[in-house]
């Protein structure tokens, strides 16, 4: 049993099935990110936990107590919204103090708690400023302090960083994680940014079409995806359609090229599979000079190079993507004929089905 449990939650909006029986058990003090593209159901799940909406089926349990039908103000939860939602006519200090004031805390207690939280989020110097006098990142820090002021049992964050620029996003996500660890607060975090989710979470649940495709630790989600959707949504992945030729040796046929993949061992001859290779595992070399001598290679031409600092990403004909050191990539310019070596180890294999959801690159 978990401290926060979502048990077989269903939610429909007319003919649209937003949630189709999701189950989550989150331990006390743990940080879980709900990750997925727009419309996958992650925000709907968060709203149900917050009490802003009611499920059509299933239960929400906190510390063994069913709170499915409890009103939002009695759930003892803190909420941080994407759009900050600060009161514009109140200072940062007054915004943070608001929840304590309506709960009847005396003035001295309120001020001490507010000062403590503003210091915690790095805004001890800005308590007297109004929202319009604060940057977006500072406003979101105030919103976080306000959510924490009431000492909630569960902290809920709905895309809290999406409106901020890239550098501020990285800084603030690290602050959120630091504060969460320091306070030991159970946290449910909604995002469409896979890098963000992997960087700060104890667990990640990838959602698609109202269901949880896979849930696990960040490293597990990256190295051992269980569905084609998760494989592509978490990071970048080369996906090669292939057919099992010999399950004993692990030999597969990809578009007429024979490859040996350890993960294919034990599979049935003729089975259609997806060979999944992370870009950093695909080794590129200039064609010729014995580059294909060791086998397990695919040939192609460099189509584009994308500079990413110490790493450069090369796209090769056939849909291949390889990440390599920028120094080595300099020897493989656009137009160069290359050989891509496919490692036998470290490659994932999934059964190929007819209905494979595709990821919209604009959504993550």
Can you describe this structure?
The protein has 364 residues and is α+β, with helices and mostly antiparallel strands. The chain folds into two domains: 4-230, P-loop containing nucleotide triphosphate hydrolases (Rossmann fold, 3-Layer(aba) Sandwich); 236-352, OB fold (Dihydrolipoamide Acetyltransferase, E2P) (Beta Barrel), CATH 2.40.50. Helices cover 24% and strands 33% of the residues. The protein has nine helices and 20 strands. The chain has helices at 42-50, 92-102, 107-120, 136-149, 166-183, 194-200, 218-223, 228-233, 326-329; strands spanning 4-13, 16-26, 31-35, 57-62, 65-66, 77-80, 154-158, 186-191, 203-208, 211-216, 238-246, 251-254, 257-260, 272-277, 283-286, 297-308, 311-316, 320-325, 337-341, 348-351. The strands form four sheets. A six-stranded mixed sheet has the order 6-7-8-3-9-10, sandwiched between helices. The protein has a five-stranded antiparallel sheet with strand order 13-12-11-14-20. Helix 2 (92-102) packs across helix 3, helix 2 (92-102) packs parallel to helix 4 and helix 3 packs across helix 4 (136-149). It is elongated, with a radius of gyration of 25 Å. Mean pLDDT is 92; it is low at 357-364.
